[in-house]
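Dear U.,

For the methods section draft, I wanted the exact inputs and outputs in one place so we can describe them consistently. I've listed the two proteins in the order they'll appear in the manuscript figures. Please don't edit the token lines directly; just add comments below if something needs changing.

First protein:
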Amino acid sequence: MSFCRYAVILLIALLGLTACEPHSDEFEIDAHSGLKVASYGSWPSPINASDVYDLADEFGELQSIDDALYFVQSDAQFGGGYGIYRLSEAGITNVVDAQFNVQSTVHEHGGSPFVGIGNTLFASKADDQRLYRIAPNQPPFPLTPLGTRHADCVGVDKGTQLICIREDHRDPNDVIATIEAINLNFADEGTTLVSGGDFYSSLRISPNGKKLVWLSWQQPNMPWDNTTLWMADVDAKGGVNNIRQLATQHQGAISQPMFSPQNELYFVADFDNWWNIYHLSDNGELKQILDMDAEFAVPDWQFGNHNYAFESANAIIASYVTQGRAELIRIFLDTGITESIAVDFGEISQVVSAAGEVMFVGHKVTPEQGIYRVNGPGIELIYTPELPMLDPRFVSRAQHVDFRTGEGSQAYGYFYPPVNPNFVAPNDTRPPLLVLLHDGPTKRASLRFRRDIQFWTSRGFAVMDLNYRGSSGFGRAYRESLYGQWGIADVEDTVRVAGHLVNKGWVDGTQLAIRGSGAGGYTVLSALAFYNTFKAGVAYSAISDLEALSQRTTKFEKGYLAQLIGHDIKTAEAYRERSPMSHLSQVQEPLLQIQGSNDPLAPAVRADAIYQSLKQRGVPTALITYQNEGHGLKQPKHKVEALRAELSFYGQVFGFKPAGKGIELKIDNLDD
């Protein structure tokens, strides 16, 4: 499709984004509560779309460098780009601004984009993926060739070189993964140390600089399926030798290898269904540190996940998830005794040792979030991004929900009821429901405070944040329960949870909506095509054609799609059968699509084909296509506008008028 046609589609959509009339302040007063009466969805809220997305608060990896803590954080002023900050006793300093945009795209999803040696940083730049040397009072200097990508680097040989994971994309038809030595003084090709594996990750060097470990895996495995643990000796010049596979006696997804202060090897593995911490001695003896029905790791879509760190030679600080709850504990290695440190967090990540202390990134179930320090039996907040003040009376607190679904399984999620201290709805009415789908499949809904959820609940929506089958945080068996069932089990879970909430009397069964992005968008389209439960759907960057996706997918996910659909099924036939694009005639309910023009996985041409098909059949539909956006919206201004359009969409479909000044989306066929 030509650029001109995309521009016309976008112009048509934006012409419909006109200002609404201000909401009237004249409300009926409820005799019992004394509150104003207004329909669910129409309540005025102090949380606007800009509060949700026009902020700088998304953290990346934490790293300890000398006596300071460095971290990556996004900045809305630079389109959501990432800069690097230094936190020390002297305060916080921006050492690389977000205009540089520190991001790696190794394995496409990136992570671990920088490392430091002394006062010099080495960081991947989003625009060209070259690794740059960033020294004080010097311009950034590129060390690596164009067409190569680097991540997860460690310094060796007294800081004269780096060892990094490299992906070479100079031949797009043959992407090669290696472990490379990078010279820090001049740009060159680097020296290949390890090759032959499909993927590598998790480079870690021992405190004495003598041992190097890493993980590898082969297609069709993903890093949460089966990985192999390797070790090599590091010589005086930074070379590696005596490369050997470490026998762990079990097969599974090994993650997050780490050396103790005594140079002993630890890692996380799901040998018994749950990601627990293990110790592997030099003589090959394997010891499980704790035996818990809990997850001490997350699926490694990105590099640089850290769920545990050494506080001392005898104590580990570790975060885990159990039954959806995030907790932080201290583990005494000599006795196995544990101490609870923090339990009021929705999400804990980036647990690292820094300057003799342990720090982590924490997101509470309330608006508080930031970087915390473990302080004896408790914690203290040492840095938080600038956030808007939020009246706690408008905050909806999650209720844990579990329900029966297909094949006798149990599924999980968090229900957020509508909350607004100034309003009640008319008697005998129930709120509209938004079922939110993470962009997994293996990701998860957590209890971390989310402004986007509060945007909806403060206006009178009920929200269900769903952990459908395949989500992480509930053990390997639950994670693998989606294999062979993608487009079936996840869709069934959305239908079952909606029915569950309707039967409880918590939501209006005539005003059920479903929304998701990427893989979540695929579930949205599938739910509308194969069931008539939902009365509206919103799909961001939705996967719609699995056969086309299989031809465009990245090396990292090449075998993943076959696992999700089922290796034993005739691929082309199964892909078509599971693709919403093949069943558009069955979609009868209103659909809003929000799309990037440069999306490589869910091309805009397919979103337009869905839009045209529904429009021609008289189904209410709308499409907004944003230029210079890829898979998922990145620019805050586009996210803000899309959220406002989404509110207008629900208002028109469900028959309420959103409060205050906003936008009105043009929906084709809605009034026909």
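Second protein (the one for the lower panel):
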Amino acid sequence: MSTAILTGPPVAGSPLEADLRTLGFDVRAADDPASAAELIAAVPAQERIAVVDPRFVGHLHALRLALTDPRFEAAAVPGALTAQPGARPALARALGRIPVGAGTAHLTDVLTETLTESLDREDVGLHRVELGSLVATVALTPAQREEAREAVAAVDDEAVRLRTAVKSRDGFFTTFAISPYSRYLARWCARRGLTPNQVTTASLLTALIAAGCAATGTRGGFIAAGVLLLFSFVLDCTDGQLARYSLQYSTMGAWLDATFDRAKEYAYYAGLALGAARGGDDVWALALGAMVLQTCRHVVDFSFNEANHDATANTSPTASLSDKLDSVGWTVWVRRMIVLPIGERWAMIAVLTALTTPRIVFYALLVGCALAACYTTAGRVLRSLTRRARRTDRAARALADLADSGPLAELVAGGARGRGRTGSYLAPVMAFLSAAVLLVWVIFEDDPASWLTVGVAACSALLAGAAVARPLKGALDWLVPPFFRAGEYTAILVLAARSDDPGALPAAFGLVAAVAYHHYDTVYRIRGGTGAPPRWLVRATGGAEGRVLAITVLAAALSPSGFTIALTALAVVLALLVLTESIRFWVSSGAPAVHDEGEPA
């Protein structure tokens, strides 16, 4: 139970107390700042505190946004503010600074505004709610109260609540084919006490059933798989809309939503590959290629965003051109569709699964994702080259964490420190050469399962170490993690594809899935503000260069069937290692709830 303290002259017949109780608050009254401070001190330290002016007039949803959103330590609208445990000391200090006696009426007449201004000056991250068409005000006279009530009656806050449950920026398919009805499904779930995490889990189970249907290899199974995949996506949209509708944000929920999306898509790829195999068509290489390409696309997104998360002095003309294109209107939707977001991608996969064959599904997926990757990466490279930005130590640390360098690269980096200039193009060039040297060799060498390949992998590791020897603050240093991911994943794919054992590719699929999960987990930890996984985990998994070196050794030392067994064992060990640590972390994580805003009211 949270506590709301009413500070100010009472208003007879006001529905405010009932609204506060509806939102789960225990309502108490205070006559002055001193008594309010005493009440706050008596409330257990782990509880949320709200301070509300009894003359508040506004929508219930305006109060809900200001007083119950878990993402913000402190939040406010006119006439109401809240402080979670982390911001309560600042609220207590603000009350303690208010003088008593003559001449202080201007500070205590609308106490909530005085406290809000004080919290705004403190470093507590005060969030001022964007009300849009919602009403929230302090009515000081009967005329103002009547006018405010008329304004409240003119706006349907439930309609606003439904509208803001939908993201303001989403793909064309999601916006026009899913969200018009999924928001009502989200409300249905909220009224029945369902949580976003439960809906997320239902989406995962639906997608896994879809993968199972695809694995049957029958036309009926493929049709059922396509339908279920689309329904899984509806649920995937619903969980986020439910979180925004009911303000049930959590770090755990964001992690489940993000990781389950990848699990659903990649499990479906595996189901398609199994179904194709039942029909005599081996498409495991295509399935693994699609997973590699999609994961590398995401790493490009993550790296670029982290590199520019808090960059200053962004003067890129490319960004200005992008803003101008967005202002045209229809180009916004075209550009969003070009990047093949999850809605368009899953719709394409579902329709092609039902109407064609797994091979055609993967061909379309590879072509579409490749074009999208070229478009987005080229645009980001141009932005990086034409901007004048100073990247921070935080950004450099995030890129280093995303690089996933192991003990060997760390050793090389330690010896190469000081030999390159921070901000130059040396890091991305070394990372590119690290991946290119390895891939050219394993692709074009007649027998890549040899000890010569191990030597090439060792040279690739040396180049990888040189790439991360200096802080990654250069204009294109965000390309270092994507180059490493492309080199590692593609090397595993090629070595498995060129093995004489047919089970090597499915084993490689499992291995890349386990490693990719580790990399996604790193991203979500950084986004949650908790930093990367512990160094012991990175060292235990070998780092990118260590895993590649180990796999080339296994390919050279073992028979094709032994190589398949080794890949399978390595996949199982890595999956258990990263999943165990990841689950332990997220279950016990104290990271703040994520910010995932819907459309402004």
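Candidate sentences for the figure legend, describing the second protein: The chain is about 65% helix and 5% strand. Residues 597-601 have pLDDT under 50 and may be disordered.

Thanks,
Y.
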